[in-house]
Amino acid sequence: MSDEQPKDGPPFRIWALGILAAVGFAVLFWRGPWWFDGAHIRDANLEPADGVVITGFRTGLVALAAGIVAGMGLWYTHKSHRHAEKLYEHGQEQFSHAREKDREQAELTREGQVTGRYVEAIKLLASQNTTERLGGIYGLERIMHDSPKDYPTVVKVLAAFLRQKPLKPTRQAIPIDRQAAFTVLSRRPEHKGEHPESIDLRGAYLVGAVSEGGNWEYANFSGANLTEAILVDIHGPCADFSGAILDRADLHNSAIPGATFNGASLRATTLPEGIEGVWLWDTDLREITNYRPELIQKAYTNDGTQIPATGAGQ
Predict the structure, then answer these.
(1) How far is CA 23 from CA 18, 53, 61, 70, in A?
(2) What is the pLDDT of residue 139?
(3) Which of 132, 182, 190, 221 is the most buried (most CB within 10 A)?
């Protein structure tokens, strides 16, 4: 018997207390007037005055019982409401925890997929087959757009690919796979916090390369061969080489119409014959190999005035 009591104990006590309260109320309702005011109420042959006292007592008792029942109802409602709130808060916590776990799992899955794509693209980039190398380059471009976290790494990989010396160094146009890598870098998406020197193309062989995009700010083209390159931005007014380093770069016969070289370094650079409308504000033009004053006269500062012929390039 003692073994079953803990399981059914609380409900039984509640029912027992309820029955006792009902019996007590009934007894009090019946005999209460005589217990509380027996000196003024007859036991038999009741008079109207007795009825008034009895009715008043019982009315007050009923009102008191109703108030107690109402108070218990409010207490029970409040308790139920608090319990429901706790259940809701607990459910929200579980939901938030589950959602965070799902987000973390989704992020891990996504990173795993990106890593797999990256590894596959690198394998293709190292292939001896030109078509496979092109697939690797455009695969890296897709990763560069999809994963900002991997953006700097992809830029460095493509720049390193372009810095590799060609198997047969000639003055011929850039191979198709190197052109593809150059195109991808030129139209790369903009990301906040990009390192100013993140594009390292020092000594790169870029003969005849065509720049589809024009974002070359702070790029390092030191010693690069840009002979006959077309450095424009097909999506904008001109290419931007602001802050770029082109020391000892070869721009012979290249096309740079309207390009911006503000703050760039063109020291000992071989410039093209035509530099109409380029912007050279605060640009280092010392030791230019083919310096001619009339070329500099065609360049403009950022306020629209021409750069003086004297003193520049000295």
Answers:
(1) 9, 22, 14, 19
(2) 93
(3) 221
